[in-house]
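User: Some background: our group keeps a shared notebook of sequences we're curious about, and every so often someone picks one and asks for a predicted structure to add to the entry. Today it's my turn. The entry only has the sequence so far, pasted here. Could you supply the structure so I can complete it?
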Amino acid sequence: MAVAFKETKYFWQEQLDPKSIRLGLTPEAQDELGRVKFVELPMVGELALGDTLVAVEAEKAVLDLPTPVAGKVTAVHTEISDDPELMNSQKHQDNWIADLLVD
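Assistant: Of course. Here's the predicted structure to add to the notebook entry:
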């Protein structure tokens, strides 16, 4: 299966399977925010379009970043809470935020 990949202003989106996606921070968002110092990750459960996916405190801004899709959060990259600078990584396996089940 080919992996579908797209980006929005703040998030890259990787298709994990027909109903699941993984979201992470784009390089453009990393540049806009600067070094990330703190993140508040989503809880497992339902998210409506526009709900806060992740709250970020960085050297250039403090933002609540809205989810670009509605769905159910099924997994959260909890290592980011302990090491927020992972959000500044260019590697998707390091800077992913959450997996969502979408319709």
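Suggested note for the entry: The chain is about 15% helix and 45% strand. Residues 27-33 form the longest helix (7 residues).
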